[in-house]
Amino acid sequence: MKKLSARRRHPLAALVVLLLALACTGGLYAAFAPASKAQADETAQSLAIDEGKKLYAVGCASCHGTGGQGSTDGPSLVGVGAAAVDFQVGTGRMPAQQPGAQVPKKKVIYSQAEIDQLAAYIASLGAGPAVPSEEKYGPEGADIAKGGELFRTNCAQCHNFTGKGGALTHGKFAPTLEGVNPKHIYEAMQTGPQNMPSFPDTTLSEQNKKDIIAYLDAVNGDETVDPGGLSLGGLGPVSEGLFGWIFGLGACIAVAVWVAARTAKAKKS
């Protein structure tokens, strides 16, 4: 009887039961535990890419190719990054309404969620500039004076010294920067859309871009005052030269006619 009882109470029996219990507990936890944040983010990103691919196939593939490789009607989108998509689609420039010297800004037809999905898909085709966070283009820590200096050096040749825009060659133009979303200004500097050169961080640092945006906000704000009087639209030498030509030269002609008339009258008398 004692021998049979000893067989049933083997020293390893308790250890085996404990291991089985731990295995069952671990299996149940793995099956029902919530996914980690990294896994959740990866899943959400994958879903965004899938949805963006569907939107791309309908609205973009006819010009840019089925895989973003480009065609005769549109450039390659491989490596342009999410920031380029957010700018072009977020300002209504894309999808383009019709071909031309330059694609103008127009009404946005996609929601921000759809723009984010398109951006996620294009970013998956190749590395490129990402959509900036608000911290990068917000006013906190910006130097307006430095931004004005940088803008006049790098941007005023096309956009005018207060960002009012201006004409370029062959029907192209530099658009006005008044009322443009700061995020889109930052993205334009990152990606260089259409005729604009790009200004990566190696050329203009994140702080430099922030300073320029702060300057534009200051000169185009609601409380902006022109200390020199009438600004003539702030369009630069073309409008100012025209004003000087018409009124300045006209005044000179009027004075010359008046002097001649007075001189002739004096001689007669």
UniProtKB/TrEMBL annotation:
Catalytic reactions of this protein: a quinol + 2 Fe(III)-[cytochrome c](out) = a quinone + 2 Fe(II)-[cytochrome c](out) + 2 H(+)(out)
UniProt KW keywords: Cell membrane, Electron transport, Heme, Iron, Membrane, Metal-binding, Repeat, Respiratory chain, Signal, Translocase, Transmembrane, Transmembrane helix, Transport
Subcellular location: Cell membrane
SUPFAM superfamilies: Cytochrome c (SSF46626)
Record keyword Aminoacyl-tRNA synthetase present: no
Annotated signal sequence range: 1-30
Coiled-coil spans in chain: none
Membrane topology designation: Multi-pass membrane protein
E.C. no: 7.1.1.8
Chief location category: membrane
Pfam families: Cytochrom_C, Cytochrome_CBB3
Domain Cytochrome c: 47-126, 142-220
Transmembrane segments: 242-261
Oligomeric form and interacting partners: The cytochrome bc1 complex is composed of a cytochrome b (QcrB), the Rieske iron-sulfur protein (QcrA) and a diheme cytochrome c (QcrC) subunit.
Record-given protein name: Cytochrome bc1 complex cytochrome c subunit
Classification of source organism: Bacteria, Bacillati, Actinomycetota, Actinomycetes, Kitasatosporales
